[in-house]
Amino acid sequence: MTSSVLSARPANGGPGGNTLNTEGAMLETAPTRYVEGGGVRFAYRALGPAKGTPLVLLQHFSGNIDAWDPAVVNRLAADRPVIAFDNAGVGRSGGQTPDSIEAMAGDAVSFIKLLGFSEVDLLGFSLGGCVAQEIAAKHGRLVRKLILVGTAPKGGEEHLLAVLQDAFSQAAAPDIRLPLFFTKSAASQSAGQAFLKRVRARTEDRDIESTKAVTDPQAKALITWCATPDPDHGFLRAITQPALVVSGSHDTMLPADNAYAMFKGLSNAQLILYPDSGHGALFQHHELFVTHVRTFLDA
Amino acid sequence: MTSSVLSARPANGGPGGNTLNTEGAMLETAPTRYVEGGGVRFAYRALGPAKGTPLVLLQHFSGNIDAWDPAVVNRLAADRPVIAFDNAGVGRSGGQTPDSIEAMAGDAVSFIKLLGFSEVDLLGFSLGGCVAQEIAAKHGRLVRKLILVGTAPKGGEEHLLAVLQDAFSQAAAPDIRLPLFFTKSAASQSAGQAFLKRVRARTEDRDIESTKAVTDPQAKALITWCATPDPDHGFLRAITQPALVVSGSHDTMLPADNAYAMFKGLSNAQLILYPDSGHGALFQHHELFVTHVRTFLDA
User: Fewer Cβ atoms within 10 Å of its own Cβ: the N or the C terminal residue of chain A?
Assistant: First the structure.
């Protein structure tokens, strides 16, 4: 179960040398490291103890390493290795952003293998959840358990372009993530402000924001994924690992019906839905989410 | 939050006197106690420490105190008062079993007040989940939080008679709860056998099994509840307490669609669904369920 350790990282694992002690490191202050292979230099941050099955985070549409919530990532890293990274073409990673989930999954698998891991847990959020499903289905032995948050199955329901257009029209919002990730309730918007404060805490060596060279192919990949039918959930049924499916009650881009459909299509899934929350339910309910993830991973 | 304590129980609280120390007591060995009022003598068992909001358990169709799973009840009582009881007409309680959820809720409220509690948490399973909804909606101040397991909203989907008929036709089953509460998978049936062993562990002072005088009015109450439409979830919206809704993936009597509908109709609900499990999902996944309940109640 814990065959992979951070100390197995190869010598080109980054400025820290070939054995990293990342215990106690925090997302906001940990150095960004690099690993290169197959023509792509991947940027990542490693947190947590060296021992245990590493939890690899797969990021949402347009997001980079600094778009993860330190309240989620640091607490998860309290008792397991956690790896946040930029997939090919994103943030400080080299290469090009591909326009298909399949190619993104191939890049993520390359990265995981470059770190020397033979078995990992995956936490995929939104676009990253599609990539996690693809890896679990096609590279089954690499994945022990997977957590799918705010995401959609193949053939799922998405309202990406309409919701993005509406959000960008709200010029008053100080950050597009307030209307995109949180509901209109006072409690959710307040949680959104707290989230923004946390993700902005890092001041040195911040990751690079996504441009159209990232978001255009990512949007195409996600929309194509949702436009590809999966008759009788054949694709989901190819995923045999234990899965935890999580969604907010009022996700406007990838509605909670997707989560319920994934729960029903997967052979071994738990479903957890949170109240009064949108696409960023995992950040709004971060304490609860971390507790649920740890319960799931430790079971 | 913790205004009610077991020591507030009145002097007629049972053979143990007016202040019970139930810390460390177990469902299998705790004495059955009695409290009387309004013409009904209620049988109950009290577990757990005196301090904290009491968790009152509302039992399923045909079930008595000994139909609760000690693995669930004892672990929940590790850090809060837990009360299992027979509602009017059931088991060792006096009175008549009414044929409506409304009347059952009235009886349960009488019992809770007889114990001197001004605020409780409710865990309602199946029929007990309907009673819990009724209490939360109509006696709001009495309920802090509620947990609704394997149950249905007003107007929900039920297949009670058809599934019971099918289960009773399987003469080979050593206990009707194996086909009713567990799926056909080897894992679920094995969990069912373990459950039966746990609920049969008590040998002295066992509760009395239900006869038609209990099950006929209970069946009418449950079927009537599900046959009563709740346009636009008006009834669910009257419930404002935090709720945790739980169901098994393959509940044949009260399908998981009910849980998803309750999650959507309630204003402040979490939803948790378990894989490969039937009506008795809380007993099959008892460790996970207890952890989730404690996380919910302690938040």
Answer: N
